Amino acid sequence: MAELANFEPMEPQVTVQNEDDWRRLRRSIIARQRQKRNELEDESRTRDISLGLATYIDIHGSVGRAVDGNAFANSLIRPTITGIVVPMISIALATLLASTVNILRDRQVQLRSLINKEACDLRLLRRAIFGMFGTRQHSGRRSRALGLINSYAEQLDKECQAGAIELLQEREISGGIAANELDRLSSMLHGVDGAAASRQSSVGVADDTMARLNQFRSDRIALLLTDFPDLHWVVLVALSVSICIMFLLESNQALNQYLNSIQLQSLFALLVGVFSAIATLCADLLDPFSGSFSIVSASAQIGDLRLCLMEDVREADEEESEMSERLGDLFEPTASKDNKVSTTSTRYTLWSTIYFHLLTGPLGSNVRVLGEALAWVATGIKRRFRSMFEWNKKLPWNRGNKRMTQV
Fold this sequence. Notes:
Layout: H1 2-5, H2 19-60, H3 71-133, H4 139-158, H5 164-174, H6 181-189, H7 192-195, H8 200-225, H9 230-250, H10 254-259, H11 261-286, H12 300-321, H13 325-331, H14 350-360, H15 364-393, H16 396-406
Helix pairs in contact: 3-4, 3-8, 3-9, 3-11, 3-12, 4-6, 4-12, 9-11, 14-15
């Protein structure tokens, strides 16, 4: 009310021409003063009502005056919170968190084991290919087979890096998650290339090794693509927030807040910190190829294996280049000349059919021996011609012709 008494409205600066203008100006000033006085009275009345209601609830309670200072109500609600609600929520949260961390950690251990098994089997498959196609007449086949293994190792290396889960999910949606180079290598072993192998026992070893590799890869992809649904994480967050709310309800007493304010704040901060640390741990374990628990180091051996495979392919290509192209067609009638790492043709020509039956018949060992002899004879002849060609280049008249051509 003191504000109303001291209120002095500002009169607008208006130029008055006659008595009517003075009257209209006076009415407008009085109307503004009355409007401002009503607004101040309404504000003061509302503030007085809110303060009175808060004081009444604080003194008498919402349903009457509690003569024991609400001790009876606290004695009823406390056993309910501490004896029923908090234990139930805590047990549910602890069970879900324990199973979540255990499953995520066990998945990383299994993935590391599967990667190691795939790397070991790839090395065994490399040795089996040398047992099948280690001789000179099979240098082209050896180059293509080792190139396929190198492509598979490259794909395995990509699937063991950060972002591998998203890459596999895209392949799963496109329908190409099961496609790999082992299928192309298997088509080689079950065709003319497998029949022409120098050691047939190595073909069986390679076939068994590829079957194990497919099983390991299927298990690894299943582990990577099997994840918890969003509802699982929502439930964990809801249970954690519920425990925080129970703490606030339990500590919401005047005596505790007055005597133990710093202790209560420290306990609440500790509670929130524990939940934040658990959330960080789960987020770290969610991607096995990133964070503190990353298993990217398990794929380092794949890079070393790829270097060995690339060197083997280079040596096989050098051996193949020492033989004539026609002799290479004789030994590999179904090989693709456009791409060394492509699969063999599924449709045999007349010569490839005859060659296949000769290899699988009783004269198969003789045919292989004859092929080795032809390969070495062709290599010697080509080397001889190459040395003669190089010697011919060094003759004086050839040097003069070369200089004339450059001029």
